[in-house]
# Entry
Amino acid sequence: MTLKILCLSNGHGEDAIASQILQELEKYPLPPELAALPIVGEGQAYSTVAGLSIIGPRQKMPSGGFIYMDGKEFWRDVRGGLLRVIFAQLKALKYWISYETNLDHQVVVLAVGDIVPLLFAWLSGVPYVFLGTAKSEYIIQDKTKQFPPKSLVERFLLWSGSVYFPWERWLMSREKCRAVLTRDDLTAEILRKKFIRAYYVGNPMMDGVELNNRMQSMHSSDAHMLKMPDQLTITLLPGSRSPEAYANWEIIIQAVTGLLEAFPQKKFLFLGAIAPNLDLESFSTLLNSFHWQAEPEIKNYSQRSILQLPTDDFQPTVFSREGNIYFPERFISQNRNASMILSQQAFPEFVHQGDLAIAMAGTATEQFVGLGKPAIAIPGNGPQFTSTFAETQSRLLGISLIVVKHPREVANVVKSLLENSDKWHLIAKNGIGRMGKSGAAQRIADFLIHLNWV
# Structure
């Protein structure tokens, strides 16, 4: 009987994680047939999976997939047609499963994200596995103690004994739920105490920052710039959602300005990792208003014969015909002790090269910390990166994420880090422990292939 796996996910980050797992499943000698239903958004991340079919209607929602974070965003999505789309998707899901089952296929579901795909999986009526990416026990407790509750919701979660609500655990404990895959070992341990078949085989978020051999193809002047001695390299992560990322960028540049004033003699390199879906010129324009100047030498690069390659999350910005990577958006500060490179396609290079990060992002911040490095967070006006989000993320990531209230406080944190080498070692150990090692997508694929679905 042919195994057919339907993947359910609800947001761009969840789609990307799911697509990594599906790509690994495609590598098997006798791979399962694959399909996907992106519940929120257009599911563009699934375009990387060659043999995949998409079922059901798709529609981009105003929240971008953060309906579980903010009541206002939820109602924006409702007004944008969320309920109509969900009912249409459920109808398509039922029809598709009935059709494939009649073809004598072994149809199963992989639900990636939060309670929304988990509920869809249960409603499907077929065996399912849930990969929980949105929650971790580290939000309410660590391995030694519970955190003081910040709200009635947290108080209830602590009372119930898990970061997952009772109704979520009910869906996880159904007979059709063959396994729950968690993002860390602590969450799996707590769920097992609730008699749920929970396992931790790795966090696929860390698969998105592998370098492979890309640094070797970098143009020599750019590679040299990234490795200058006595230089502090700081990765800037403004987030990926418009228009919030543009407002976050201004806050981050205020922090950068404070750093340059606090360390007038120190050499800095700032690496701005800008999401491909955003307008790069808006970020450059703001730098100009803060008196950063485009480096004259880079203008020569733009005059060379270059080949623009198709853009995706893991392609470099620009290749020359000789195959070298260039960073065409490069700036220098007014007092010339700091340089800045902006790129929309060099995220893996930028997170690996950064000594620390100034971060106002979700997944990108977690990936940076997972490499064993400290990140400094500044809450913005949202809708995603608010003070509440930053507080939750700091619990999730522990000492690796330092939250400040104002951009000007970043300089003091950097000074403290530079004076405390022991803290760097603790942060490195903590970050790797919280996020795990790369290769999780392949391990999850193995788990799915060898699972007894019957």
About this structure: Residues 298-323 have pLDDT under 50 and may be disordered. The longest helix spans residues 82-102.
